[in-house]
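Next comes one such specimen:
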Amino acid sequence: MIVNRQQLSQQYEELGYFVIRNYFSEDQIASLRKVVLTFHELWKADNKEFYQEEAFNSSLITGSQYLSIAERTELFDFISSKKIMDVVDAVIPNNPAFMNTQLFFNPVNPQQKDFWHRDCQYDYDVEDQMRVILETQVLHLRVPLFDEPGMEIIPGTHKRWDNEEEYNVRQEVNGKVSHDSLSGGKKIALSAGDLLVFSADMIHRGLYGLDRLALDILIFDSASDYVDYVDDDCLPTQIMLKSIVDPRLFINTLQLKSMACA
């Protein structure tokens, strides 16, 4: 499938997200699923209490703690593949950099609710959140490994601040809680093989249910100050880099880290 970069860029600019249906083949998803499930089972065994009580995601999937060199290399090859890079280049054409990977799954506790948020709210106060959503660029590229309820988003909030309803729910003030419905919500169900790209700082929430297991690749604009969020162990080694066909994402991150240490 050939993507129309201009069309994707325009949709992202306007709405803050886009979906490409059936973007990956069954074989690609099957191979990716095998590696990710290896990580997931080992991570669950190592984080039993956290997983049972409250977890709904994990991170650092490309690290060396749970995966072999061959498995990590397979992930790096997928992240830097032409299909991924075509989409990344459509949204961040200048020096995109790799930040992290996350894995999203259903919480064990059936009473646990999904919740509205902007990713930046966990690092910034309200005043700085208003600034960050206009100045920085962080992408989620979500690859569902099984069919799932997907995401609910508020289109356009990657470029504007919350209205009163959104703010009250997201911040849990004035009698509202973060899992309350929002009138502007748009639900996007996802199937294995789809790709959802969305702004990390738009108002969104994951929807629990079915066999939810989604790999998220996080990419940032090199002009943004996010290199401190990158874990060294989650980057490819120099030997791995030599075998990657298009290693730009990782090279840009390594260069940023080198500059930060200089």
The chain is about 35% helix and 20% strand. Residues 5-261 form a domain with the Jelly Rolls fold (CATH 2.60.120.620). The mean pLDDT is 95.
